[in-house]
């Protein structure tokens, strides 16, 4: 769609192409923080069955661990965005790392169910401070034309954390045990904390970072202003419909579904989760390039990802028995594109909002996918508990809850896209006009 992409172009940094060594060092350090954050986020998902034994939790109670974490993560997005606009990404990334270290250490050492749930909530707080802060570094250190691709690389590189949880973390969990695994994860977080304070800077030397020192009341007004911009709402629904399926899969229900319902070995499950990361990396590069090259077609990419996810799940769930391994691999590849696809939502936030409100806008967009994720996770936990646990038939019913989210998200994208076009004074071209223009160029 054509969406007034340059409405806030005058807020963009004017320092030219900053592709020097220091820019990449700062970015790599930020990405490392996000990688470890994803490890913390997904570590409980791969240890779900072990957690059930350790804490005596049934499926519904087990889901409450992750649901609470995601509730905290989602509810912290707007406060985190406002804080980011005030203090900058360096402080936020370091604070996020320290908070997640505390949560993981508590989870490593406790056998108390209430303390374990509280520890996951603490991890959710730290997680909420990290990703949008790392994203905020990109427009500060890189030229505008590079921002979509580097933002995509940020998201897809972060998924290496999923590999760390699926392979070395899981190996430690099934070897030395629960405490060693979570202490090891906390140790990586401590390293990130030190690196964030020593390496990351909010902006290049000589470039003043725009901040917004405002009262609490004015912060509330800013949140309202940001939400009223149609591009923010478009980003919210784009993020909602693309990100939640793979998030629910990797955070909690994917491993039980593959191992218990589909009867796959831990080795095959690990290979599938690794495949998810590879698929996200490859598709993320493609999505990043296409987003930068065809900004007026971003909404069509978002809608295509949602529809393909829904169709792929429909094929798997309609099978009368267990799915063949190749089909499950294909399912994971398709839904993994949703992770990079959700970053298009942040691109809408960037291009429809001034830089002084970018953290708030990014946090608001980020709520979309995680709000959908927590609702689906909780609903699936209730359904699985009511239908007898981790059986194939129970999971078949539970996964159907995803279609409610896709219906809401697709409707939201279509409505907010129309509003954005109207506000920008753009008349969308018909398919015949698009085809005619393409043929005239040949």
From TrEMBL:
Keywords: Membrane, Transmembrane, Transmembrane helix
One Pfam family matching this protein: MFS_1
SUPFAM superfamilies with a match to the protein in the record: MFS general substrate transporter
Domain Major facilitator superfamily (MFS) profile positions: 26-424
Entry superkingdom: Bacteria
Cited InterPro entries: MFS, MFS_dom, MFS_trans_sf
Residue stretches spanning the membrane: 21-40, 60-84, 91-109, 115-138, 150-172, 178-200, 234-255, 267-290, 302-319, 325-346, 367-391, 397-415
Subcellular location: Cell membrane
GO cellular component, one term: plasma membrane
GO molecular function terms attached to this record: transmembrane transporter activity
Membrane topology field: Multi-pass membrane protein
Record's protein name: MFS transporter
């Amino acid at each position: 769609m054509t969406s007034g992409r340059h409405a806030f172009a005058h807020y963009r940094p004017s320092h030219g192409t900053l592709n020097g060594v220091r820019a990449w060092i700062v970015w790599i350090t930020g990405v490392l923080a996000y990688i470890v954050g994803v490890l913390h986020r997904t570590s409980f998902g791969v240890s779900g069955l072990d957690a059930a034994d350790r804490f005596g939790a049934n499926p519904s109670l087990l889901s409450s661990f992750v649901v609470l974490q995601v509730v905290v993560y989602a509810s912290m997005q707007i406060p985190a965005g406002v804080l980011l606009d005030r203090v900058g990404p360096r402080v936020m990334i370091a604070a996020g790392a320290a908070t997640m270290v505390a949560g993981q250490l508590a989870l490593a050492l406790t056998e108390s169910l209430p303390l374990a749930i509280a520890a996951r909530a603490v991890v959710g707080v730290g997680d909420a401070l990290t990703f949008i802060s790392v994203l905020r570094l990109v427009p500060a250190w890189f030229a505008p034309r590079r921002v979509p691709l580097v933002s995509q690389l940020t998201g897809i590189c972060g998924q290496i954390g999923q590999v760390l949880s699926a392979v070395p973390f899981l190996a430690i969990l099934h070897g030395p045990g629960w405490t060693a695994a979570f202490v090891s994860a906390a140790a990586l977080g401590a390293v990130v904390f030190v690196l964030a304070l020593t390496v990351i800077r909010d902006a290049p030397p000589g470039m003043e970072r725009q901040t917004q020192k405002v009262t609490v009341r004015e912060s509330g007004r800013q949140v309202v202003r940001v939400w009223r911009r149609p591009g923010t709402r478009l980003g919210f629904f784009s993020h909602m419909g693309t990100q939640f399926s793979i998030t629910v899969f990797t955070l909690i229900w994917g491993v039980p579904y593959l191992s218990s319902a589909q009867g796959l070995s831990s080795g095959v499950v690990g290979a599938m989760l690794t495949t998810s990361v590879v698929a996200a990396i490859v598709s993320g590069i493609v999505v990043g390039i296409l987003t930068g090259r065809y900004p007026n077609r971003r909404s069509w990419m978002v809608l295509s990802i949602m529809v393909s996810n829904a169709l792929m799940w429909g094929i798997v769930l309609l099978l009368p028995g267990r799915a063949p391994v190749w089909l499950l691999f294909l399912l994971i590849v398709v839904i993994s594109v949703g992770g990079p696809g959700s970053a298009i939502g942040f691109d809408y936030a960037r291009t429809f909002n001034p830089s002084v409100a970018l953290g708030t806008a990014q946090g608001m967009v980020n709520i979309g996918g995680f709000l959908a994720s927590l609702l689906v996770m909780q609903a699936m936990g209730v359904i699985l508990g009511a239908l007898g646990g981790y059986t194939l038939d129970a999971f078949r019913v539970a996964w159907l809850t995803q279609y409610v989210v896709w219906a809401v998200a697709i409707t939201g994208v279509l409505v907010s896209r129309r509003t954005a076009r109207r506000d920008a004074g753009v008349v969308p071209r018909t398919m015949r006009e698009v085809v005619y223009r393409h043929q005239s160029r040949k």
